[in-house]
């Protein structure tokens, strides 16, 4: 009888943990703001997306209604805000031999600024790890966490 009760208790804890994970998945740590303005700052990194092409851009500028920047391969921009710039066709992106590109501002179809709330993201991940440790301890060592 005690074995059935222990197994039942472990199943309950596992179900509670799975439900908690589902709720954590519903919390987004990102905010997307669509606009027609391209923010220019060192706090942002830029992604230009065409139909098939995608470029990571740095050192951006806007001169004479032309957006331009240097194509980079680095993707480690933690803590930065992301700006996604969409164009309807890859042919609207002008590529140059010195690894730069340019796009007329009139050819840009959409601009999205994505801001990550680091506090919320850290809280969700730390809470998940602590929850997993409690569940693992309760299931492995039969600790009563309540």
How would you describe this protein?
- With 146 residues, the chain is an alpha+beta fold.
- It has a domain at 29-116.
- Helix content is 33%, strand content 36%.
- The protein is built from 2 helices and 8 strands, in the order αββββββββα.
- The chain has an 8-stranded mixed β-sheet, with no helix packed on it.
- The longest helix is centred in the N-terminal third of the chain and has 24 residues, at 2-25.
- The chain is elongated.
- The chain starts with a helix and ends in a 5-residue tail after the last helix.
The helix tally amounts to 2
Largest sheet: 8 strands, mixed
What structural category characterises the helix and strand content? alpha+beta
**What is the ordering of alpha helices and beta strands?**
HEEEEEEEEH
- Give me the count of strands: 8
Strand order of the largest sheet: 1-8-5-2-3-4-7-6
The coarse silhouette is: elongated
Strand content: 35-45%
Overall pLDDT, averaged?
75
Catalogue the unreliable spans.
none
